[in-house]
Amino acid sequence: MFTTVLLIEKALSAADVELVTTLHTDEQVFFHVIMQPRGKQDELLRAIDDVAFGYLEQAAKEREEPHGQAALGAADAALQHTLRALRHSGAAGAEGAVVDHNPLEGLQELVKEVSADEVIVLAAPHWVEGLFHRDWASQARHKVGVPVLQLFAQQS
Fold first, then answer.
1. Residue 121, beta-bridge partner list
2. Rounded to two decimals, what is the model's pTM?
3. Angle at 135 between CA 64 and CA 34, to 5 degrees
4. Residue 150: is its pLDDT beyond 60?
5. Residues of the chain by 3-state class (helix, strand, coil), percent to 5
6. What's the gap between Cα 106 and its chain centre?
7. Which residue of 12, 45, 61, 72 shows the fewest CB atoms closer than 10 Å?
8. Where are the beta strands (DSSP E) in 51-114?
9. 20, 65, 30: which is closest to 46 by C-alpha?
10. What is the dihedral of CA 107, 92, 96, 42, to 10 degrees?
11. φ, ψ for residue 101 (rounded to 5)?
């Protein structure tokens, strides 16, 4: 069985689920999902990315994102949706957790604990962070000792 640690920031769309579940067609895949709710700390960077992509309406709504307990509740609902979708799609299994801190903290230990074969970062493009190698995938590549794949989530 192939084991994947999947870092996400929102519920996976049907297209996202299909993408991650068809990467390894010859093997059963078990997913360990880590979800961090979108927080106030990266609000400005998200708005800059939105403007860069021409999503002006979305940039204006960044301040309306839930924060604190509301963000954790929304993230947990999104995580449960994602786990159900992964299991329904034929994955060998899926479990996960919402973290309210940097999801890279403890990533190396999780990769070792579950004997992960890879880490997939599936998030919206973060061009500003990526430019300075501060995005999750760039940072994870220096920590985990397994391949790290960066995929871009479908915009909804």
1. 7, 150
2. 0.78
3. 75
4. yes
5. 45, 20, 35
6. 15
7. 61
8. 93-98
9. 65
10. 70
11. -130, -175
The encoded tokens of residue 8 equal 């996400």
Superfamily of domain 2-152: HUPs (3.40.50.620)
- Closest to 31 in 3D by CA, of 144, 145, 116, 147: 116
φ, ψ dihedrals at 19, nearest 5°: -60, -50
Structure tokens at 147: 């391949």
DSSP 13: P
Which residues, in sequence order, are CB contacts of 54 under 8 Å at separation 6+? none
User: How far apart are alpha carbons 131 and 113 in whole angstroms?
Assistant: 31
Residue 104 identity (one-letter amino acid): L
Q: Give dist(CA 38, CA 100) in Å, integer.
A: 9
Q: Is 7 left (phi over 0), alpha (psi -120 to 50) or beta?
A: beta
